[in-house]
Amino acid sequence: MPQKIHIRLAAHRVNASVAVNRRVPKIFTPGQVITEQNEFMRGHGTYEEEGFLKSSVAGVKEQVNNLISIRPLKSRYNGEVGDVVVGRITEVQQKRWKVDTNSRLDSVLLLSSVNLPGGELRRRSAEDEHMMRQYLQEGDLISAEVQSVFSDGSLSLHTRSLKYGKLSQGVLIKVFPSLIKRSKTHFHNLYVGASIILGNNGFIWIYPTVTNSEDGVGGFVQNLEEVVSRPERETIARLRNCILALTQSKMMLFDTSILYAFEESQKYSVPELLVPEAMVDVAILTQDRLSMAENS
Amino acid sequence: MSKNRELLSKIGLRLDGRRADELRRIRCKLGVFTEPDGSAYLEQGLTKILAAVYGPHQVRGNRSKAQHDAAVVNCQFSMAVFSTGERKRRPRGDRKSTEISIHLRQALTAAIKTELYPWSQIDVYVEVLHADGGIYPACVNAATLALIDAGIPLKEYVCACTASLANNDVPMLDISHQEEIIGGPTLTVAALPMSGKIVLMEMSQRFHVDHLQKVLEKALQGCRDIKHILDEAVKSHIQDVGSSTGWANTT
What we know:
The structure holds two protein chains of two kinds.
Chain A: E1 27-28, E2 33-35, E3 41-42, E4 46-49, E5 52-55, E6 59-64, E7 67-72, E8 84-93, E9 96-100, E10 107-114, H1 126-135, E11 141-149, E12 155-159, E13 165-166, E14 171-174, E15 187-190, E16 194-198, E17 203-207, H2 230-248, H3 255-264, H4 276-295
Parallel strand pairs in A: 3-7, 10-12
Antiparallel strand pairs in A: 1-6, 2-5, 4-5, 6-7, 8-9, 8-11, 9-10, 11-12, 11-13, 14-17, 15-16, 16-17
Helix pairs in contact in A: 2-3, 2-4, 3-4
Chain B: E1 26-30, E2 38-44, E3 47-58, E4 72-79, H1 95-111, E5 120-130, H2 135-149, E6 159-166, E7 170-173, H3 177-182, E8 186-192, E9 197-203, H4 209-245
Parallel strand pairs in B: 4-5
Antiparallel strand pairs in B: 1-2, 2-3, 3-5, 6-7, 6-8, 8-9
């Protein structure tokens, strides 16, 4: 089937901004003096020069008592203990895997912090070390939780729960980490017939909902034979395009905003959702519904 | 040729109608791509530049390059085949682009707080879409914007500007390609405009040392002016993005 191809001029670009007029906090840019008093402590995004506290990134001020930091609106992922992340294995080493989590250094997944098949109380043997590549190899996607942060800023992950582990069939979307809203749970079973993992690191995984809850997505089983039905795949594709639309308009991503976008997108077919005008339309409608829900 | 085409006319106008101390129009945009961590597009007159920043990320490839106390800054400059008057294939790594890459790295390392990111690497890719004089300064300015968009800590903006001397007397700001061809020495300065530190200075030909001070002063003034323009653009971009996200996670 021949596809209709749209090529547009730069001048016809759609303005994707859905900015609502609100109180705008003061914006600091690199080199700008934050305060001239030296009783404050310097936090992230600031530095001290000639007695002045200056900003080193472009963003907004955050103050906790005496600690002043400037938070940029966009940056690499800064991990915190307990965050849910989605990552890709980049390397298999002695007793550990290296995982790319969009952080500034690769994260570590220790062999001792995964649940190997055969129950939690299984003893680890030297054989497991040789089997590591059978469990996870380069290029595999995993979901995990941040266990601790090392002194150099790299993360240590763990998958010691059935909800974490190797990901099998689904779609990965990469967005800026700052667009993911922190919430109590980052695993969502959406009623529309797909599930979603909103990794705090900006990696989003959409996958068909698993019906028998006992294996979940966890573990190391990757069932590639299982056929995902067409309606399910269409739902996943639509979810993906909705998330892209929200991302293009720089809107926060969480279960409600994604569901609203999904509902508002019903008037378009899935491929139509990639047209910039449709994306902005969906984003604006979602924004309206969110602000309505907020005000009521 | 330089006889009938003066750099500065009697009434003080240049070939493109600017006065001696006027910059070309600067238009810029942050966050033009979604794949890199930061990106920017900058137009300075007809010179058009795209810049993309990846990182800080784990050092890939040659592991031994990684430093324990600072991030590695890696710059790559390239020109599109259609960027100049004649269409020409420019292989990567020719002498001119290598030189500009090195100069770019020098200017950016002076501004980036590399000590915050040990064992990491920051990649800066700059592509010239349309070359119309002052390529290097425009690249520095675009790269600064891209770094800010990526949220990489900088001491301050790093801006660059060119200046020249017309009629052996009047210092002239922001030289276009046409003026470069007609002649006259061109001084390129990259500076940290707020503290007034010069991080890179280059001269295309020699001129009398008596003139250096005023031409340099003019170029630094240009850097400060450019900083104001970039600052405005960054603020409006942040405001735009922040309003869309609803200033989430902020107090």
